[in-house]
Specification:
By secondary structure, the chain is of the alpha+beta class. It folds into 2 domains: 31-178, Ubiquitin-like (UB roll) (Roll); 187-595, Glutamine synthetase/guanido kinase, catalytic domain (Creatine Kinase, Chain A, domain 2, 2-Layer Sandwich), CATH 3.30.590.10. Helices cover 51% and strands 11% of the residues. It has 27 helices and 17 strands. The strands form 3 sheets. Strands 9, 10, 11, 12, 13, 14, 15, 16 and 17 form a 9-stranded mixed β-sheet that branches. Strands 1, 2, 5, 6, 7 and 8 form a 6-stranded mixed β-sheet that branches. Strands 3-4 form a two-stranded antiparallel sheet. A hairpin with a 5-residue loop joins strand 10 (280-285) and strand 11. The two termini are 28 Å apart. Bound molecules: adenosine-5'-diphosphate (ADP) and magnesium ion (MG). The site of adenosine-5'-diphosphate has 16 residues, from strand 9 and strand 14.
């Protein structure tokens, strides 16, 4: 059989951009069309039911049963009017992206008739058979079910023919089995702590919402190419592949014009995303060929996280229509940029102001400074947790690989804000401050808004950067659920704000300081004690790695080690204090992440072995035989000149022999390393064993195979090459 590679190449040669019919479509009219949003609710719900859903959204108050019946019947009416036939609880289990189990509205009754049925109990709670979702030993098999519970803060939507109800997923023992439940708790903890601190500045603030604006990077490849590469198919990344002679070195893809096939795909999925209420606004090419990015307007955290999950599904589905495949893996191609997910994060008050945005008055400037410095301090205190929150097998390829932020957590704030912090540090004294000093300080802080407006200082190498009115966490992996890192960020900032309030209050009381004096003093302490986390230089440089080490910042390069921060004593007490995750839940999550890491590496390693042994080596030997046949013929025909004439062939034959031998030996060694680490006493040692003893073979084996790709006849090479896959027209 001909190699899939050649079938794929033939297929792709015949491709044309799929046209998308946008006749008469006005995007603003499409927005939210498939969402049971406020407008739709008002139309379909009684006044009373509408108010109760709204109240529950704003305050987290539980909706009572009779109201739930009303809501479900209106939801059903709306869904049926839009042609939906099924409903599902939509949730985010700990591995896999989203899960759903569809039930029909259709319900047979007596006399052979049927009705459409969806009642309050079906809206509020469901019991998916959860025995096969990962639970890290939280549920034993005889208690293998959990339930999903409606999250009224994220509106229901229709996807294809199904009404999807966003839900949290918990076990019967009350343990969280998903990403959403802890995220919502962390958001609530931040709300409480931030609102308390806001009272120093503005008593009319009743709550604070975290906001998230994600940017999603991804690669596109033709569906036929995707299917032709078993490694892509199985692991989402190419384990072999010689760099294309033209890669990203010309930087001509970045912000260049979008290739037509990709453009049509984008327009198509953006329309679908808009209909689902996802406010996608930005699209552009990224640095590497075939790499793109999309970003929506920011939204309230929980909704934004749901929307990111949803958008990843929508992209994949729409891509298939365009004969394309979306790669969300952090590093699908070696030697080129990987993909990340930038999480832009801030806090927004019930009065509509951004707590990380510059203010107009001295009071709001001090408020800005308070939240700004507290965030820095939180990251300083809990950098290890933040690092753990972005750990995954895929992201290990990216962090520190000289194209993405290193695995060292640091914060960039720009030179002007740095000098403001320096001035606060210099000016604030212990005890009472003189009126002159205070006035001077306020004047300086008063300059913040102007500074932020022209803050063009953009350091792209920092994992956590302040960008004018928000922090941007850039080290998040492209395939990750935003909730992992956002749960940690919101929790640590909540903790920090709570500590801050305690310190300020106690100074006001014990030292009889005025409020702003107390605030300045605590901020000064934080500025000094968190200085080490601030870094303005090139985060990709070798000097930074050395400097960070001197500062005592940790540089945890690999997932199984980074994950340990989750189960440290301080992490357990932190998550417990805010009632976000119990020590048991943390242990369970830790175990699931480790297991997941090990399985991913195992799959990649197996894919590598299969490809090397069953495809690469046979192709090499075939080519070698051809060469040797040629050499024999030369010898027959030109017995005297043969040595000179066959020199190149013989050298190639020799190189193939050597590299094939190395590939085979390394492959067997890697298999042995896998075996050694398969039956250890804990998932943690297995994952660490895979990390330390299996992963190092990846580069070594790849090196040999990629060299072979350079010398073996193109006609015989079985794997679709980078240069073929990477340039969508
Ligand atoms: P880039 O990082 O590519 O230069 P922008 O500065 O335009 O991009 O914005 C990046 C993202 O920041 C956008 O997705 C936007 O929605 C988000 N963003 C803007 N303001 C906030 C905010 N207050 N909270 C959270 N995200 C925000
Ligand atoms: Mg960005």
């Amino acid at each position: 059989m001909a190699h899939l590679r050649f079938e794929a190449l033939k297929e792709v040669m015949k491709r044309h951009p799929k046209s998308v019919n946008f006749d008469g479509i006005v995007l603003s009219k499409e927005f939210g069309k498939n969402v049971f949003n406020d407008v739709t609710m008002k139309e379909f719900l009684s006044d009373e039911a509408y108010k109760s859903v709204r109240a529950s959204r704003l305050s987290g108050k539980v909706i009572d049963r009779s109201m739930a019946d009303q809501v479900s019947s209106s939801m059903k009416a709306w869904a049926l009017s839009k042609g939906a036939t099924h409903f599902t609880h939509w949730f985010q289990p700990l591995t896999g992206r989203t899960a759903e189990k569809h039930d029909a509205f259709f319900h047979p009754i007596e006399d052979g008739r049927a009705i459409e049925k969806f009642d309050g109990s079906e809206l509020v709670q469901q019991e998916p058979d959860a025995s096969s979702f990962p639970s890290g030993g939280l549920r034993n098999t005889f208690e293998a079910r959990g339930y999903t519970a409606w999250d009224p803060t994220s509106p229901a939507f229709i996807y294809d023919d199904t009404l999807c109800i966003p839900t949290i997923f918990v076990s019967y023992t009350g343990h969280a089995l998903d990403y959403k439940a802890p995220l919502m708790k962390a958001a609530a903890a931040l709300d409480k702590a931030a609102t308390d601190v806001c009272q120093y500045f503005d008593k009319s603030i009743t709550n604070v919402n975290a906001t998230l604006g994600w940017e999603q990077e991804y690669f596109l490849v033709d569906q036929a190419f995707f299917k032709s590469r078993p490694d892509l198919l199985l692991s989402g990344r190419t384990v072999f592949g010689q760099a294309s002679s033209k890669g990203q070195q010309l930087d001509d893809h970045y912000f260049g014009s979008i290739p037509e096939r990709a453009f049509n795909f984008m327009r198509d999925f953006e329309l679908e995303a808009l209909r689902l209420g996802i406010p996608v606004t930005t699209r552009h090419n990224e640095v590497a060929p075939n790499q793109f990015e999309l970003a929506p307007m920011f939204e309230e955290l929980n909704l934004a996280a749901d929307h990111n999950q949803l958008v990843m599904d929508v992209m994949e589905k729409v891509a298939r229509k365009h004969d394309l495949h979306v790669l969300l893996h952090e590093k699908p191609f070696a030697g080129m940029n990987g993909s990340g997910k930038h999480n832009n994060w801030s806090m927004s008050t019930s009065t509509g102001s951004n707590l990380l945005g510059p203010g107009k008055t001295p009071k709001t400037n001090l408020r800005f400074l308070t939240f700004f410095v507290n965030t820095i301090k939180a990251v300083h205190e809990h950098a290890d947790l933040l690092r753990a929150s972005i750990a995954s097998a895929g992201n290990d390829h990216r962090l520190g690989a000289n194209e993405a932020p290193p695995a060292i957590i640091s914060i960039f704030i720009g030179s002007q804000l740095t000098s403001i912090l320096d001035e606060v540090e210099r000016a604030v004294t212990a005890g009472k401050m003189s009126p002159d000093v205070k006035t001077d300080l306020k004047l300086k802080i008063g300059r913040i808004p102007a500074i932020l407006l022209d803050n063009t200082d953009r350091n792209r190498t920092s994992p956590f950067a302040f960008t004018g009115n928000k922090f941007e966490f850039r080290a998040v992996g492209s395939a990750a659920n935003c909730s992992q890192s956002m749960t940690v960020l919101n929790t640590i900032v909540a903790k920090q704000l709570k500590e801050f309030k305690k310190s300020v209050d106690s100074r006001m009381k014990s030292k009889n300081l005025q409020k702003d004096e107390a605030i300045f003093q605590v901020l000064k302490e934080y500025i000094v004690s968190s200085k080490d986390i601030r870094f303005e230089g090139n985060g990709y440089s070798e000097e930074w790695v050395k400097e960070a080490k001197k500062r005592g910042l940790s540089n945890q390069k690999t997932t199984p080690y980074a994950l340990d921060a989750y189960v440290s004593k301080s992490s357990k007490s932190l998550f417990k204090e805010f009632n976000i995750l119990t020590p048991e839940e943390l242990e369970a999550r830790h175990e699931i992440s480790l297991e997941n890491y090990k399985l991913k590496i195992q799959i990649e390693s197996r894919a590598m072995v299969d490809l090397a042994m069953n495809q690469i080596i046979p192709a090499c030997l075939k080519y070698q035989k051809e060469l040797l046949d040629g050499v024999s013929h030369l010898k027959e025909i030109f017995p005297k000149e043969f040595e000179k004439m066959a020199k190149a062939q013989i050298e190639i034959v020799r190189e193939i022999s050597e590299r094939v031998e190395k590939t085979r030996t390394l492959t067997y060694e890697m298999i042995a390393a896998r075996k050694r680490n398969n039956e250890l006493d804990s998932v943690s040692s297995e994952a660490k064993g895979y990390c330390d003893e299996v992963v190092p073979y990846f580069d070594k084996i790849r090196y040999e195979v990629d060299k072979l790709e350079l010398i073996v006849d193109d006609e015989l090479w079985p794997l679709t090459k980078y240069r073929e896959m990477l340039f969508i027209k």
